[in-house]
Amino acid sequence: MRYLSVMIMIFSLGCGDTSTDITAVATPPSNNTVRSVKSDPSYNTDVWEIFVRTGCSASSCHGNGAGGLSLSTSSGSYSMLVNVPSDGTGEILVIPSNATGSYLTKKLDGSQGAGSRMPLGGAALDETDMKNIENWINQGAKNN
Protein backbone atom coordinates (compact mmCIF):
# COMPACT_ATOMS: atom_id res chain seq x y z
CA MET A 1 0.00 0.00 0.00
CA ARG A 2 2.85 2.34 0.88
CA TYR A 3 4.42 1.62 -2.53
CA LEU A 4 1.14 2.50 -4.28
CA SER A 5 0.91 5.83 -2.41
CA VAL A 6 4.47 6.74 -3.43
CA MET A 7 3.75 5.87 -7.08
CA ILE A 8 0.58 7.98 -7.09
CA MET A 9 2.51 10.92 -5.66
CA ILE A 10 5.27 10.59 -8.28
CA PHE A 11 2.77 10.43 -11.14
CA SER A 12 0.79 13.38 -9.82
CA LEU A 13 3.97 15.48 -9.65
CA GLY A 14 4.39 14.87 -13.36
CA CYS A 15 1.00 16.41 -14.03
CA GLY A 16 0.67 20.13 -14.22
CA ASP A 17 0.95 23.15 -16.41
CA THR A 18 4.01 22.87 -18.63
CA SER A 19 2.96 25.57 -21.07
CA THR A 20 5.64 27.93 -19.78
CA ASP A 21 8.36 25.62 -21.08
CA ILE A 22 6.80 24.69 -24.42
CA THR A 23 6.71 26.90 -27.46
CA ALA A 24 3.74 26.34 -29.74
CA VAL A 25 4.66 25.38 -33.27
CA ALA A 26 2.27 26.20 -36.07
CA THR A 27 1.37 23.36 -38.38
CA PRO A 28 2.11 24.31 -41.97
CA PRO A 29 -0.90 24.39 -44.28
CA SER A 30 -1.59 21.25 -46.24
CA ASN A 31 0.04 21.14 -49.64
CA ASN A 32 -2.72 18.93 -51.03
CA THR A 33 -3.95 21.17 -53.81
CA VAL A 34 -6.90 19.72 -55.67
CA ARG A 35 -5.88 19.15 -59.26
CA SER A 36 -8.33 18.71 -62.10
CA VAL A 37 -8.31 17.96 -65.80
CA LYS A 38 -8.48 21.17 -67.81
CA SER A 39 -9.81 21.36 -71.35
CA ASP A 40 -7.29 24.05 -72.37
CA PRO A 41 -4.38 23.94 -69.91
CA SER A 42 -1.68 26.59 -69.89
CA TYR A 43 1.92 25.53 -70.42
CA ASN A 44 3.30 27.92 -67.81
CA THR A 45 0.82 27.26 -65.00
CA ASP A 46 -0.34 23.70 -65.66
CA VAL A 47 2.11 21.68 -67.76
CA TRP A 48 5.41 23.06 -66.50
CA GLU A 49 4.03 22.74 -62.94
CA ILE A 50 3.73 18.99 -63.57
CA PHE A 51 7.40 18.82 -64.57
CA VAL A 52 8.39 20.73 -61.43
CA ARG A 53 6.11 18.82 -59.02
CA THR A 54 7.17 15.39 -60.30
CA GLY A 55 10.88 16.21 -60.21
CA CYS A 56 11.45 16.24 -63.98
CA SER A 57 12.92 19.74 -63.78
CA ALA A 58 15.27 18.83 -60.92
CA SER A 59 19.01 19.03 -61.43
CA SER A 60 19.28 15.23 -61.28
CA CYS A 61 16.95 14.88 -64.28
CA HIS A 62 16.15 17.37 -67.03
CA GLY A 63 17.14 20.38 -64.94
CA ASN A 64 20.66 19.78 -66.18
CA GLY A 65 19.74 19.05 -69.78
CA ALA A 66 19.86 15.25 -69.63
CA GLY A 67 18.89 13.67 -72.92
CA GLY A 68 19.24 17.03 -74.65
CA LEU A 69 16.19 18.43 -72.84
CA SER A 70 16.33 21.09 -70.14
CA LEU A 71 13.18 21.65 -68.10
CA SER A 72 14.77 24.04 -65.61
CA THR A 73 12.72 27.07 -66.69
CA SER A 74 9.26 27.41 -68.16
CA SER A 75 10.26 29.52 -71.17
CA GLY A 76 13.43 27.58 -71.90
CA SER A 77 11.73 24.22 -71.64
CA TYR A 78 8.91 25.21 -73.98
CA SER A 79 11.38 26.05 -76.74
CA MET A 80 13.09 22.68 -76.25
CA LEU A 81 9.84 20.69 -76.51
CA VAL A 82 7.60 22.01 -79.28
CA ASN A 83 8.50 20.93 -82.84
CA VAL A 84 11.91 19.74 -81.64
CA PRO A 85 13.23 16.24 -82.46
CA SER A 86 14.33 13.89 -79.70
CA ASP A 87 18.09 13.43 -79.46
CA GLY A 88 17.56 9.68 -79.17
CA THR A 89 15.03 8.78 -81.86
CA GLY A 90 14.53 11.90 -83.93
CA GLU A 91 10.79 11.81 -83.20
CA ILE A 92 9.23 15.21 -82.54
CA LEU A 93 8.83 15.72 -78.79
CA VAL A 94 5.64 17.79 -79.02
CA ILE A 95 3.62 17.97 -82.22
CA PRO A 96 1.01 20.71 -81.72
CA SER A 97 -2.55 19.31 -81.94
CA ASN A 98 -1.26 15.70 -81.98
CA ALA A 99 -0.70 14.25 -78.51
CA THR A 100 -0.83 10.67 -79.79
CA GLY A 101 2.03 11.28 -82.23
CA SER A 102 4.13 13.33 -79.80
CA TYR A 103 7.18 11.55 -78.42
CA LEU A 104 6.70 13.28 -75.05
CA THR A 105 3.41 11.48 -74.40
CA LYS A 106 4.91 8.20 -75.58
CA LYS A 107 7.79 8.61 -73.10
CA LEU A 108 5.37 9.49 -70.31
CA ASP A 109 2.95 6.60 -70.92
CA GLY A 110 5.66 4.02 -71.70
CA SER A 111 4.67 3.39 -75.33
CA GLN A 112 7.87 4.90 -76.81
CA GLY A 113 9.29 1.55 -77.93
CA ALA A 114 12.90 2.39 -77.00
CA GLY A 115 14.43 3.61 -73.78
CA SER A 116 12.66 4.01 -70.47
CA ARG A 117 9.34 5.46 -69.44
CA MET A 118 9.62 8.87 -67.83
CA PRO A 119 9.93 10.06 -65.16
CA LEU A 120 12.89 7.71 -64.90
CA GLY A 121 12.81 5.83 -61.61
CA GLY A 122 9.64 7.62 -60.50
CA ALA A 123 5.99 6.76 -60.51
CA ALA A 124 4.10 7.13 -63.76
CA LEU A 125 2.11 10.33 -64.07
CA ASP A 126 -1.44 9.99 -62.84
CA GLU A 127 -4.43 10.30 -65.15
CA THR A 128 -4.99 13.98 -64.32
CA ASP A 129 -1.42 14.95 -65.22
CA MET A 130 -1.41 12.86 -68.40
CA LYS A 131 -4.74 14.30 -69.56
CA ASN A 132 -3.57 17.85 -68.92
CA ILE A 133 -0.40 17.30 -70.97
CA GLU A 134 -2.39 15.61 -73.75
CA ASN A 135 -5.02 18.38 -73.71
CA TRP A 136 -2.31 21.06 -73.85
CA ILE A 137 -0.78 19.38 -76.90
CA ASN A 138 -4.15 18.74 -78.57
CA GLN A 139 -5.14 22.39 -78.06
CA GLY A 140 -2.13 23.47 -80.10
CA ALA A 141 0.69 23.31 -77.50
CA LYS A 142 0.44 27.06 -76.93
CA ASN A 143 3.16 28.99 -75.13
CA ASN A 144 0.84 30.48 -72.52
How would you explain this protein's 3D organization?
This protein has 144 residues and is mainly α. It contains five helices and no strands. It has one domain. It has helices at 2-14, 43-53, 74-81, 103-109, 127-138.
Concise overview:
This protein is mainly α and about 140 residues long. The chain is built from 5 helices and no strands.
Low-confidence stretches: 3-31
- Average pLDDT across residues? 76
Q: What is the percent of helical residues? A: 25-40%
Radius of gyration: 26 Å
- Number of helical regions: 5
What are the main properties of this structure?
single chain; 144 residues; mainly alpha; 5 helices
Write the layout of secondary structure elements.
Blueprint: H1 2-14, H2 43-53, H3 74-81, H4 103-109, H5 127-138
Helix pairs in contact: 2-5
